[in-house]
Design a protein that fits this description.
Its main location: membrane. The protein is an all-alpha fold and about 120 residues long. Helix content is about 75%, strand content about 0%.
Length: about 120
Amino acid sequence: MLKALTAILLCQLAGETISAASGLPLPGPVIGMVILFAVLAIRKGVPKDIGTVGDTLLSNLSLLFVPAGVGIMQHAARLEAEALPVVTAIVVSTLVTIAVTGFVMAKLGGSRPDGGTTEEA
């Protein structure tokens, strides 16, 4: 279990290092996740201990939202003053995400013009 957690954190550290050294506009943890994904894809599977650690982290994921909630409460007055731009950004980004997801699913999902899928044929 400790080796798996160390492997995950080393991937994050590598991502942080790459992000800081290269100046890429990507967060280090995202780069680390890509590194971890690449390693697991090369291995063609997820080792049981990494899966267990990942499941444990996911089951406690809600704790990571506490700092964000505190930040929102501390800046409530600013959010209230800028409510229109914030709500607009949330709505537009949600609609764009749904549209892009639908487009990608249509292109990669094998949909046919009549609404069926290639799996039904």
